[in-house]
Amino acid sequence: MDKPHHAGATYRATQLILTPSVFGYPSLVVEDGEPGVFSLTYPAHGVGRVWEGLEPPDHEPANQLAALVGRTRAAILERAAVAVTTTQLARELGQSPGSVSEHLTVLKANGLLSSRRTGRSVLYWQTPLAQSMISTQRTSATLRPGTVDRPAHQELS
């Protein structure tokens, strides 16, 4: 560590706590106040964009699904096209694993996700119901207002 005021310090601990933070950027905060515990607070990944505003719902590709289940849950459903873990989703969405876990619980309880434990991880993926919702949303997004979606082989009378 390049910390002049800690140049000669030696830390001994049985527990290491790593904490990402957007408030200490770009500093590294070192704490050893509790016996046996060493804490390191570091700048969170993507901190440069944390204060930017969110795009309006009109600009989001999943806006109909997001209007129904919320932006985060819609993003989770989209990413669960292949099996993913809570940690992977949290990293991709820039949210805490706890927050993502709550969303996963709601989506699973409502039949939109399936899950299976694999070792120490739980994998989540879309159910046929979720696939149908996402497919319908994508199809309706490609239609222009005032058009009717008909199969190409159907004859019009």
Keywords:
33% helix; disordered C terminus; Arc Repressor Mutant, subunit A; alpha+beta; two-stranded antiparallel ribbon; 157 residues
CATH architecture tag of the largest domain: Orthogonal Bundle
Total E-strand runs: 5
User: Average pLDDT value?
Assistant: 77
Largest sheet: 3 strands, mixed
Descriptive overview:
Strands 1-3-2 form a three-stranded mixed β-sheet, with no helix packed on it. A two-stranded antiparallel sheet has the order 4-5. The N and C termini lie far apart (77 Å). The protein is built from five helices and five strands; from the N terminus they run E-E-E-H-H-H-H-E-E-H. The radius of gyration is 23 Å and the shape is elongated. It has two domains: 13-45, no CATH class; 58-142, Winged helix-like DNA-binding domain superfamily/Winged helix DNA-binding domain (Arc Repressor Mutant, subunit A, Orthogonal Bundle). With 157 residues, the chain is an alpha+beta fold. It has helices at 63-69, 71-79, 86-93, 97-109, 128-142; strands at 15-21, 29-31, 37-43, 113-118, 121-126. The longest helix has 15 residues, at 128-142. The model is unreliable at 149-155 (pLDDT under 50). Helix 1 (63-69) crosses helix 2 (71-79), helix 2 crosses helix 4 and helix 3 crosses helix 4 (97-109).
Task: Give a topology summary.
Layout: E1 15-21, E2 29-31, E3 37-43, H1 63-69, H2 71-79, H3 86-93, H4 97-109, E4 113-118, E5 121-126, H5 128-142
Parallel strand pairs: 1-3
Antiparallel strand pairs: 2-3, 4-5
